[in-house]
C-alpha cells in the first residue's frame, strides 16, 4: 500500500526596520511524494485463537485425551511443525513426554511450540500454543481446565477416576476452549455447566409418604374391624 506525503512551504512575512510592511516573498508551493509500504506481518494479530492443542498423558506417556485445533485463518507460520495427522501427533507427544516426565517445570519451548503443563499424580496436563502467544494467557487457560477437572472429579485427579468420568472432562475442556479460543476462566462456572444434575428425591419422598399413609389407613381399618368383631 503506497501513499503520498505532501508538505507546503511558504516563506514568512518580512518587515522593514521602520515598521512598514514589505510584500511577502513569492515562493512556490512544493509537493514531495515519499513512497512507503505497510508490512502486513507487522500488523496486530487480532484473532482470538491461542491454544493449538490440549493433551492429557499418563506417567507412561500414553495418551488419555487429546484435542488439536487448527488455526482459523490460513496455515501455520513458517517453520512451525505440522501436527495434522495421527502419526505426527504421536511422535510429538512421545518427545514431549520424554521432555516433561519429570515434575518441576511448568512452561517450556518444545519443537516450535510453547508448552505449559502440570503434573497430577499419574497424569500430566498440557496446553500447546504458538511461540508468539501470550504465555500467561495460555497458562491461565490450562490452570482453569485443571481446576474445573478437580471440581468435576471431586479433587481426585488421577487416571482411573478420569477415565470413569471422561465424558465430563471432555465437556469441561469444550467449555474452556473452543476451536483454540479460551472461552472461560472461572473453574466453578465450567464445572456448574457440565456437572451431572442431582437426583430429584422429591418424588421418592412423596411416594414413600403415600405408601406409609396408605399402610397406616389399612392397619387402622383392620384393627377397627377386629375390635368390632370382638
Automatic annotation (TrEMBL):
The keyword Transcription regulation does not apply. Residues 51-195 form the AP complex mu/sigma subunit domain. Coiled coil: none annotated. Keywords: Cytoplasm, Cytoplasmic vesicle, ER-Golgi transport, Golgi apparatus, Membrane, Protein transport, Transport. It is found in: Cytoplasm; Golgi apparatus membrane; Cytoplasmic vesicle, COPI-coated vesicle membrane. Residues 1-24 are annotated as: Disordered. The coatomer is a cytosolic protein complex that binds to dilysine motifs and reversibly associates with Golgi non-clathrin-coated vesicles, which further mediate biosynthetic protein transport from the ER, via the Golgi up to the trans Golgi network. Coatomer complex is required for budding from Golgi membranes, and is essential for the retrograde Golgi-to-ER transport of dilysine-tagged proteins. The zeta subunit may be involved in regulating the coat assembly and, hence, the rate of biosynthetic protein transport due to its association-dissociation properties with the coatomer complex. Oligomeric complex that consists of at least the alpha, beta, beta', gamma, delta, epsilon and zeta subunits. Belongs to the adaptor complexes small subunit family. This is Coatomer subunit zeta. The lineage of its organism: Eukaryota, Fungi, Dikarya, Basidiomycota, Agaricomycotina.
Amino acid at each position: 500500500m503506497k501513499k503520498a506525503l505532501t508538505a507546503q512551504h511558504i516563506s514568512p512575512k518580512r518587515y522593514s526596520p521602520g515598521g512598514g510592511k514589505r510584500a511577502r516573498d513569492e515562493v512556490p508551493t512544493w509537493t514531495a511524494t515519499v513512497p512507503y509500504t505497510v508490512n502486513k506481518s507487522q500488523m496486530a494479530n487480532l484473532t482470538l485463537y491461542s491454544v493449538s492443542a490440549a493433551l492429557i498423558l499418563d506417567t507412561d506417556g500414553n495418551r488419555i485425551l487429546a484435542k488439536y485445533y487448527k488455526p482459523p485463518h490460513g496455515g501455520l507460520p513458517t517453520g512451525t511443525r505440522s501436527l495434522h495427522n495421527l502419526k505426527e501427533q504421536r511422535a510429538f507427544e512421545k518427545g514431549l513426554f520424554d521432555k516433561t516426565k519429570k515434575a518441576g517445570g511448568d512452561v517450556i519451548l518444545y519443537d516450535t511450540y510453547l508448552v505449559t503443563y502440570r503434573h497430577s499424580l499419574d497424569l500430566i496436563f498440557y496446553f500447546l500454543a504458538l511461540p508468539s502467544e501470550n504465555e500467561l494467557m495460555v497458562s491461565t487457560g490450562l490452570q482453569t481446565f485443571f481446576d474445573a477437572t478437580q471440581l468435576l472429579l471431586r479433587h481426585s485427579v488421577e487416571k482411573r477416576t478420569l477415565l470413569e468420568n471422561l465424558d465430563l472432562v471432555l465437556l469441561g475442556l469444550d467449555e474452556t476452549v473452543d476451536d483454540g479460543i479460551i472461552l472461560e476462566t472461572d473453574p466453578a462456572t465450567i464445572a456448574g455447566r457440565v456437572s451431572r444434575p442431582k437426583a430429584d428425591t422429591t418424588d421418592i419422598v412423596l411416594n414413600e409418604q403415600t405408601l406409609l399413609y396408605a399402610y397406616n389407613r389399612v392397619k387402622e381399618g383392620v384393627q377397627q374391624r377386629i375390635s368390632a368383631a370382638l
